[in-house]
Amino acid sequence: MSVDADLASTLAGLRLFSDLGRPELEEIAHTFDEEVIPAGQRVLRQGLSGSNVYVILEGEAGLVLNGQERASLQRGEFFGEVSILLGESPTSDIVAKTTLRCLVIPGPQLRTFLLAHPEVMLQMLLSVTWRLRTTLAWLS
Amino acid sequence: MAELDERPFPPGEYPVVVVGSGPGGLQTSYCLRRLGIEHAVVSQDDSPGGMFRKWPIYQRLLSWTKPDAPVERGTRPYEWYDHNSLLGEQRSEQALVAEFMDRTWMVPSRPEMEQGLAAFADRAGVPVRYGCRWESTRREKDGFVLVTSDGEYRCKVAVFAIGVTDPLKMPIPGIEDVPHYVETGKPRDYEGKRVVVIGKRNSGFEIADGMVPWAKQVLLVSPRPVAADVLAVSTVRVRYLQPYEDHSWGGGTFALDAAIERIDKTPTGYRIVANGTTHPGALEIDAEIAIAATGFCTPLRDLPDLGCSTVKQGTLPAQTHHWESASVPGIYFAGNATQAAAGLRKHGIGSASGTVSGFRYNARLLARRIAEKHFGQPAQRSALERDEIVPFLASELTRAPELWTQKSYLARVVGLDPEAGPTDDGIQPLAAFLDEGEGNALAVSVEMDDQARIYPALYLRAGGELHEDVCPPHPLHDFQSESYRAQLESLVKRALG
Q: What distance in Å separates the CA atoms of residue B289 and residue B186, rounded to the nearest whole number?
């Protein structure tokens, strides 16, 4: 068998990785695993240690806090980075709303990965900044 | 007169059909039979053993079996020292690979492994219809039809234990001219040659290790750097670290981190055109020999057309926590392919389901799940006394081979229903306990973090809430000592009062 749809090309289409060249994309595709989560299954579990960072390649996920869905996440969006960067357990559940395909960045590797790929770090910072601005707008 | 076909399981209707006679198929069939679930086993091979009938190509496994260990061979704790034997209930069916090893190394040779598997099939009496090739699949009202070279099998549940054995090539221009790992010749065929191995995973390092004594130089090329610190504590280190040591000393082996752009044929062999990843820059490597050690995939045939979703670019079937297809209920996977049911992947560390040591336990739970879900046979739960709970769980944390092999993947569960009383609910997939379980219960698992620290984790489900307690490691992994018992006791108290 030969693989046709290669992961590096999928990654090239996501904003988070949009500033990377082909060799770096291939390195990421070879380094990190892809995971498929059936609809309804949890990906991130509130209060459990040892979690990871997920980048959505396909499908939709919901952020669920105390049983209530608070936000919806789409292709190209990522989750799990807050607890990893702060060294805490996730404060909410992330649940697959459809069959969800994700790239998994192991929690312990996130810092090294971001330092090795500052372009990804900048894109992540931009996304997080947008999230912060939306939250502030909502609060005011 | 036509020759009488004495093979078992003629085409027809069976509650369950298992495809495959490698370790995954044999273990699943063994466990289904112990539960009284009638089933057929079909295999395209003509003898048991699956991939171990021909691979690893250089005839030596990665995973170890220690014939003599601190505990007696054939006991449950001994399974932890024997990563290659299947699980039987009778002494004659247990620890069989250890029996065939000549002890030149603690890692069995391929023939020793094959002998161990064949002995299991023979002594445990696992009948298989050999020489019967599964060809296609279709749905029928209440189940599936498996079309084989011998005819059609109708079943309610199908279990595919078909390995991860189809040679896989990455889409690199020119790779069609490069032989795959499975076509690798004898080590001496590479005497005095410069060899490029495309890929730095198990199979790449395995052939590099075999060739180092003969080849002039071996270059392993792939985009991902070798994570030597992770490998040092991995069971596959025996193969990886020898060539990597050679690389570190600047010898005849190089492990290059580069994305290959294309492979050109030259009059003397190949030219690999690549771009460095760890050290960016263009690279051109000439070599007489190139081998694509780019991995394998599950031979899923038409299962994706039937609706089975896949993972890792179509190479593995996507699965639930119970190894059922994520998208086609009633289709299950056993053996190596269960590695795609990732579990919690705590600290980024995956399960051991890609090796016999891990998937033999998955198979046991899979059989129980099938019996419960499809044949109305509830799992046996034995009652425990209140004062037995803590010593029992502490002992499981210290000795249970399921927990030690499948870290943060399988858990021992004790039901803590205040009315029904405590029960031993057996070994369960940890993710299923956390996501699907109901009622008060305590699950314990052995876990490892990214620093290779091994510690117990306790999960209490009480009053609809989940609580995790992570315990500190112990220098001798003795989780029966006082502090662990106290922590277990406090959780039991929370649920039972």
A: 13
For B272-304, write each residue's pLDDT tens digit.
999 998 888 999 999 999 999 999 999 999 999
Per CB-CB distance under 8 Å, the chain A contacts of B321 are 41
**Any A CB within 8 A of B437 CB:** no
Instruction: Give me the helices (H) in B299-427, please.
Output: 303-306, 356-375, 389-399, 401-405
B314: left (phi over 0), alpha (psi -120 to 50) or beta: left
pTM attached to this predicted model: 0.94
User: Between vectors from CA B286 to CA B281 and to CA B289, what angle results, nearest 5°?
Assistant: 130
Please state the three-class secondary structure of A78-89 as a single string: EECHHHHHHCCC
- The answer to whether B222 contacts chain A (CB < 8 Å) is yes
**Do A43 and A96 meet the contact criterion of CB atoms below 8 Å apart?**
yes
Domains of chain A and any CATH numbers: 33-134 (2.60.120.10)
- Residues of chain B numbered 123-182 and touching chain A (CB < 8 Å): 166-171
Q: What's the complex ipTM?
A: 0.92
Residue with tokens 């099939």: B121
Hey, is the C-beta of A72 within 8 angstroms of any chain B C-beta? Answer: no
**Cα B390 from Cα B276, distance rounded (Å):** 54
Render pLDDT for B437-484 as a digit per residue (tens, 0 to 9): 889 999 999 999 988 899 999 999 998 899 999 999 999 999 999 999
Contact B197, B293 (CB under 8 A): yes
Residue B213 backbone phi and psi in degrees, to 5: -65, -15
Nearest chain A residue (CA) to B323: A38
Question: Half-sphere exposure (CA, 13 Å, Cβ side) for B207?
Answer: 33
Gap between the Cα atoms of B304 and B318, Å rounded:
10
Q: Are B32 and B367 in contact (CB under 8 A)?
A: yes
Residue of B nearest to A31 (CA): B224
